[in-house]
Design a protein that fits this description.
The complex is a heterotetramer.
Chain B (H helix, E strand, L loop, with lengths): L1 H56 L1 E2 L2 E2 H11 L3 H14 L7 E8 L2 E7 L8 E2 L14 E13 L3 E12 L1
Parallel strand pairs in B: 5-6
Antiparallel strand pairs in B: 1-2, 3-4, 3-7, 6-7
Helix pairs in contact in B: 2-3
Chain C lengths: L1 H35 L2 H16 L5 E6 L5 E6 L2 E5 L6 E4 L11 E5 L3 E6 L3 E6 L2
Antiparallel strand pairs in C: 1-6, 2-3, 2-5, 3-4, 6-7
Chain D lengths: L6 H22 L11 H37 L10 E2 L9 H15 L4 E7 L2 E14 L3 E14 L4 H17 L11 E4 L2 E7 L4 E4 L3 E4 L2 E7 L12
Parallel strand pairs in D: 1-9
Antiparallel strand pairs in D: 2-3, 3-4, 5-6, 6-9, 7-8
Helix pairs in contact in D: 2-3
The chains are: A alpha+beta, B alpha+beta, C alpha+beta, D alpha+beta.
Chain lengths: 158, 169, 129, 237
């Protein structure tokens, strides 16, 4: 009789082990699924960067040319300098910007240099949020209006 | 027979669980990605707007691309406009990151010109609809954004000019 | 008889286990859902993004946030802070344009309306209900 | 020993219930939840900016087209009301008040594009048009937005109003002093019975869009009935 009881106990174990394993795995997956919407809806860094990069083109304090009215998208060449951009875009210690104004030559300005230098680490999506966009712009240089590109690369430490 | 029945139940339960979890994984992922992307998409349409308005304002000797567009429409000859549009947009959208651009003009919903990049659709998943189910299976999908302007044409006509861009996200 | 008895107990144990699990999961989901919709978390972000967006405006803007529950709003230098009695304060750092007059406000909202105007500068104003 | 296995089926059923409930709670019901609306207010704001830019661009183009049409019409009428049949008669309905008449013709052309000018000023051969502000209003759940953008357009005139005005002054002076008209200006003139016909070619091209594009330098033609000039002193020649 004792052998039979031992046999039954080990048989019970054989049945319950896979069940417990299945339960643990399923519980883990369910918990992961539930937290997905939560993580995403607090992720506003990309939205913030999209809004911030547009300031360079929409705001007359930044680059927008003003001839009595604000011409969003037309860059006043005299405004593309470090001093003016640092003033109109006071980046906090988490955000860095790299601006490239491309005509027949390339002019580069970095805002918050310390952070802008980390743009090479944008592959690390866990710690950095990066955005990059190239605008087709018109550049007003005294009397002359020429076309060019403005690339805005932005990085934010999460 | 009973022992067999217990194993079958176990396997069938696992199969059922796998199906349920996969479906809800897709649902949860799509819902969370769509919401955040929807507002980013809306705000980033403004970037396309800047490219479109500057395309129309691009200077051409004493006139602009807008004037060339009108002349092309009245003369029904779009060759110069096409060449110019390609020069501009192939420069703005580098083939690597943004392989797709398309610009078209419509008057009273009738297209009067359309130009686009030399784009191989088979290489990318086009996610026109943010709820595109395929998005969860491919890392590399093409996020398309488009923006339109209803602009004044002579004789008080209105032309809808639409610029669409497709960039790898 | 004895074997039938064991089976019954096991079934009851399994049912009890699932019942307890159900209650635990129910409250867990409820807390996730409610924790996420804390007003401060939403409002500080939305207001901060709006202030960033106002800096882009070529024209004049007038905005109203109404139906705001009880909280304290502070704006200073380059951040917005929203604090309600029961929770820790939430902060959003916006990107300042130093051409504009610095924002320096401290409001206590009791279901009032927040008015924001942008013309040559950005102004905030609390409108009592 | 062999039992009816209920643990796993129950687990599957239990997981289905949980996931359905959490999907409802965290996603479906989340739609009313505020955190999911972050970004929508800002999207509305940027939409307002872009509508403003579009309106500003269109206003500028509408002004250009209206100016071309107005110059064409104004020149065809000889700078006076269309009913005057190009006949200048001072101190009458056909008084050659060139600026006022040009603004009237231009305003009518601009209205065809749906733009109502608040103020129009011409000086130094350029025209400044101040239109009604572009406004954009939107009311969302707890977020109201009002956006306004002043619209003003300034353009060089492709017709030399200064020159025409000085010609008018010469003609008027001539008539007041009783001198023969054709001795007072060096513009091309032609006599038709008692009418003196002046025709001045515009120095700039304008584009006229009808079925096709017409590039032309409109000729400004006006006549003076030397027996009914509207000036008291009359000349005999």
């Amino acid at each position: 009789m004792n052998k039979k009881a031992q046999f039954e106990t080990s048989h019970e174990l054989i049945i319950w082990i896979p069940r417990i394993i299945a339960l643990v795995i399923v519980a883990g997956i369910v918990f992961f699924l539930i937290t997905l919407p939560v993580k995403q809806s607090f992720e506003i860094d990309k939205l913030q960067e999209t809004i911030l990069r547009q300031r360079f083109l929409y705001s007359e304090n930044c680059l927008a040319h003003n001839d009595g009215k604000v011409n969003s998208g037309i860059i006043d060449k005299s405004k593309f300098n470090q001093k003016n951009l640092d003033k109109c875009f006071e980046a906090n210690d988490k955000i860095g910007v790299n601006l490239n104004l491309i005509t027949d030559k390339i002019e580069t300005i970095n805002l918050n240099q310390k952070i802008a230098e980390k743009l090479d680490f944008c592959f690390d999506k866990k710690h950095f949020t990066c955005t990059n966009y190239t605008y087709y712009v018109l550049i007003q240089d005294e009397k002359k209006l020429e076309s060019g590109l403005l690339n805005v690369a932005m990085i934010k430490i999460k | 027979m009973k022992k067999g029945e217990s194993a079958i139940t176990f396997v069938f339960s696992l199969i059922f669980l796998a199906i349920v979890i996969t479906i809800f994984y897709a649902l949860f992922l799509l819902s969370s990605v769509n919401k955040a992307n929807f507002s980013i998409n809306q705000v980033s349409l403004s970037d396309v707007n800047i490219n479109l308005i500057n395309y129309l304002r691009t200077p051409l000797n004493t006139t602009t691309v807008y004037d060339l567009m009108i002349n092309s429409y009245y003369n029904n000859d779009y060759r110069e406009l096409e060449t110019l549009s390609e020069n501009i947009f192939n420069r703005v959208y580098d083939n690597e990151r943004c392989p797709l651009w398309n610009i078209k003009g419509e008057i009273n919903n009738e297209k009067f010109f359309e130009f686009e990049s030399k784009f191989d659709a088979r290489k990318y998943t086009l996610s026109q609809n943010p709820r595109n189910f395929l998005r969860i299976f491919t890392d590399d999908y093409l996020a398309t954004r488009s923006s339109s302007f209803d602009i004044v044409f002579p004789d008080n006509k209105k032309a809808k000019i639409t610029l669409l861009e497709g960039c790898v996200e | 008889m004895h074997k039938k008895g064991d089976l019954l107990i096991e079934k009851q144990l399994i049912f009890a286990f699932y019942l307890i699990l159900a209650v635990v999961v129910y409250f867990m989901i409820g807390s996730i859902a409610s924790e996420r919709s804390y007003f401060e978390d939403y409002f500080v972000r939305d207001l901060g993004l709006t202030i960033d967006m106002l800096h882009n405006s070529p024209g004049k803007v007038s905005i109203e946030y109404h139906g705001l529950s009880n909280f304290n709003l502070v704006t200073k230098e380059n951040f917005v802070e929203v604090r309600s009695s029961k929770n820790i304060p939430k902060i959003y750092a916006f990107t300042r344009d130093k051409n504009y007059v610095q924002l320096d406000y401290n409001f206590n909202f009791l279901n009032d309306t927040l008015k924001i105007k942008k013309d040559k500068a950005i102004y905030l104003e609390m409108v009592k209900k | 020993m062999n039992k009816k296995a209920i643990f796993m089926p129950l687990l599957s059923f239990f997981v289905l219930i949980i996931l359905t409930y959490s999907y409802y709670e965290l996603v479906v019901k989340d739609v009313e939840d505020k955190s999911s609306t972050i970004g929508l207010n800002q999207a509305e704001l940027v939409n307002a900016y872009n509508k403003g830019i579009e309106n500003e661009f269109n206003a500028e183009k509408a002004v250009s087209h209206s100016l071309n049409s107005a110059i064409n019409e104004f020149s065809k009428n000889g700078g006076v009301n269309g009913k005057c049949n190009n006949l200048w008669k001072f101190n009458s309905d056909c008084e050659p008040d060139l600026e006022k008449n040009f603004i009237n013709v231009f305003t009518n052309e601009l209205l065809k594009y749906g733009y109502d000018a608040k103020e129009i000023k011409i000086n130094d051969n350029s025209i400044t048009i101040i239109l009604n502000d572009f406004t954009y209003k939107k009311e969302l759940k707890n977020f109201n937005l009002e956006y306004s953008l002043p619209i003003a357009v300034r353009k060089e005139l492709d017709i030399d109003l200064n020159k025409l005005n000085s010609l008018k002054d010469q003609v008027k002076k001539c008539l007041e002093e009783g001198k023969p008209l054709n001795t007072c200006t060096n513009e091309k003139t032609e006599v038709q019975e008692n009418l003196m016909v002046f025709s001045i070619e515009n120095n700039k091209n304008i584009l006229i869009y009808t079925e096709k594009i017409e590039t032309k330098k409109p000729v400004f033609v006006f006549k003076i009935n030397t027996r009914d000039t509207g000036i008291k002193r009359e000349t005999v020649f």
